[in-house]
Amino acid sequence: MKHILASLAVSAALLAPAALAQSPVLVELFASHNCRACPKANKTLHEVDADREDVFILTWSVDYWDYLGAKDPMAMVESEDRQRGYVDRFRLRGPYTPQTVYNGVEQCAGNKPANVSSALEKVQAFSSEPVKVAQKGDRITLDGKAKGLTDIWYIDYLDGEDNTTNMVHPVTHVTALGPWLGGHMELELPECLSHCVIVVQEAGFGPVLATLPLSR
Fold it and tell me: Do 41 and 9 share a structural domain?
């Protein structure tokens, strides 16, 4: 299935602007190992990751369920800060697991495959100003328009042999590379501890404008 989708993606890239073709949908899962519904969400997102080339998944571990069992070793303050930002953005009553967020514009419980599929369909209909992000060695370049203040996130995650968890791309470290207001910009990248991705996102945890997994 991935080979078929890859071929389709190549064909689509020939017809679409490069800035739009390069960026997958960012799917973010907020989870805890003390959350009973999270294993089903992990399974669902593993299936999405295996079947689709047009998404990129990150898993953020939170610790507010630690009172139910052992401390979650992957939990980070940055995960809770990010999820609280989405709680405000989507006007939710509070944070929950397993929450999934799609390019910062859709959200749903990630343990229900039908909801995940529906959210992916909705986010693909969402249009925003195209932003082109490219890697050049240990630097990246940004080109495009921004409606206002935009954040550039540099995110470390585990993958392959480095990932001994049952999660898809668990996040281990987050760095803010600085604001961007549009136009051309070039940045030097920090050291990548394992695997890394650049996320360009409207300030206040708004819509994600570009996602670029970095080559090592």
Answer: yes
